[in-house]
Design a protein that fits this description.
homotetramer, about 210 residues, alpha+beta, L-fuculose-1-phosphate Aldolase, 7-stranded mixed sheet, two-stranded antiparallel sheet
């Protein structure tokens, strides 16, 4: 399965996304997981415990949308549930990325009720925003080791708010997605920029 | 038109400016536009939706100072009006750049009435400052999707204050300009440095 | 002794750790010391006064766990005691690193009674944390020029709290360790990320 | 004169210092000047208006300690006085550097009466500090366009406090020096690190 062109192309795009995120300080050590869709039923996802800045083809596994491992001999990370739930909900989603910067982490702890990003031109880079500078809600979920339960909370939230472009887990960073790895990276980059702006805005507003 | 030496030279200078701005975190994803003058009536400007860190010759279009597209088959970005208005007002302007850092964005939101930068040696790098460390005003305009109206507000402001070296749009970053792409980049770099200083000064002064 | 494969391998790993730390701004000029175990009785440690970003094989000396110099003609740095005490206490420790970032330094001064890091997913990257997002204590010791006394305080603290993954010295940065240079670097990276989060969290919480 | 080995070696060392400072954001655009001693009576100093990140041999001029230009056809920058005054006072000084980071600039404005850096291990990297973590005073001078007068104030201050390792000019950045370009860079790096710590400490202490 790791021989298919599709696998190789997606693994390469995810490895490049990991390299960029690591270089920018958005993924400390080996936290976080990146995934991309292979077809209707299968995704490629990072194997557990790897440094995201140095991924190669051997750093990925294939799982189906029921969570069965189709390649490799490792157990997938518990966070795999958080990826699968997105691909099942929306067939248009081609990639799910996690970014875990200090600013995403600090904001997720300071605003346990969720964050609203508004009056930023850069919101136009997110799928949920209209032509003008409007607002984007970013829900914050409590962190837990019960990943199936957390995945179900995310699924419920997405059912009610299909327009969401990303969410935070408290102390755990950002999940965002897109039609492709490139689109998801653009959303990660936009969110991280807006998180920087939020931290500075709250410092200046005091 | 894209074959002229003038076009190639200006496109190359703008691509290099974009690469530097992206590397320094002043242009998240594909926001912002860069332009340079080709002659009395024509400018080259970035096409919409491109990552400013990876521009090449195909990432630009030529428009005249009435807003007509002279090359390429794309619609120019609405922000093109904000560029044209500067070239029409001042024949000495050779380039207009937008930089969109987190500090520029946060300050533009915190000071909707405008910002005054004073008592900085680096102000000498801006055209409006005299030989000593004086002050530079940075107007802040409200953001809007009505670009022709915003362009007209900018034009009025420049008519009253021709000495201005740049302005902010709330939540949208800095516009600055110069006799060449290099000169405009020097102004962008100076403003971004002063914005960093302002954020730190306001943190220390509390 | 500098000819053994073991020496060369450990010196190379420490030089690479130094290069990464210097690049990230975690080791200003020539402060700090890095070490790795050669065998039950001997370690390799950086010679005094060197820039950690440009280490090569000649930048290291071999000392035994009684503090005797086994190679080179330099006196070891006084901080060598702080390294030896860890290797003597725990035969599983393969490397001890010091990182000295601005955030580690500022936190070590602001919290002389010690720091508790809690509710961070990244805590899972540290050996003392369990499967869920729990808490990690980071003791802060007073700085002093009496290194043998400080080493003895650290030793007493480790006897009472063998689960510790690192400690701070006030105004002096972080000491952390691991089974190998790579493992110790992962802990340094995790701590530095968490220190960034703590500084931002305390800024946002005010 | 630009043909001597001494000139070439010092120009190369200053160009490398400039490249490092620019890369770290300590020298925005073309502000600041770097110099190094050629002999008892002559120094090499950066020509006015150049980007410090891209210096080559043509970016320097030779002046004597009375301020006479010995090479090149440019007028030296007014700040040349601030360099000469140090070389005249202390024959052991081999280089004078200016670094102009946002944190140096913000601190110089927030503490017009001067700054005291204390309880930092990194102070040991500065010549004035003893074996233990003691304190270093950093005077802050008012900025002015009257450089001869400012140079005379600096000279008076150095006469009273020969142990000083650097000083700030309000809104204008840090002057520091050393026996060589490398030594002066180590002091600049130490001060910039300590300024970062000071900004963070004051943020945390509130």
């Amino acid at each position: 399965m790791e021989d298919t062109l599709e696998f190789k192309a997606q693994a390469r795009a995810l490895a490049e996304a990991g390299r960029l995120c690591a270089m920018r300080g958005w993924i400390p050590t080996s936290v976080g997981h990146f995934s991309a869709r292979l077809n209707e039923q299968q995704i490629v996802i990072t194997a557990p415990g790897l440094d995201k800045g140095r991924l190669d083809d051997s750093g990925f596994m294939v799982v189906d949308l029921d969570g069965h491992v189709l390649s490799g001999d490792q157990e997938p990370a518990a966070e795999t549930f958080l990826h699968i739930v997105m691909y099942r909900r929306n067939p248009g989603i081609g990639a799910v990325l996690q970014s875990h910067s200090a600013q995403a982490t600090a904001l997720s702890r300071a605003f346990p009720q969720g964050l609203v990003l508004e009056h930023y031109e850069a919101l136009k880079q997110l799928p949920s925003a209209g032509p003008g500078p409007t607002a984007t809600a970013v829900p914050v979920f409590q962190n837990t080791t019960d990943m199936p339960r957390l995945a179900s909370q995310v699924d419920d939230c997405m059912a009610r708010h299909p327009e969401l472009a990303g969410y935070l887990i408290a102390g755990h960073g950002l999940y965002t997605w897109g039609t492709s790895v490139e689109a998801a990276m653009r959303h990660a980059e936009t969110f991280e920029f807006l998180f920087q702006c939020e931290v500075l805005s709250r410092t200046l507003d005091r």
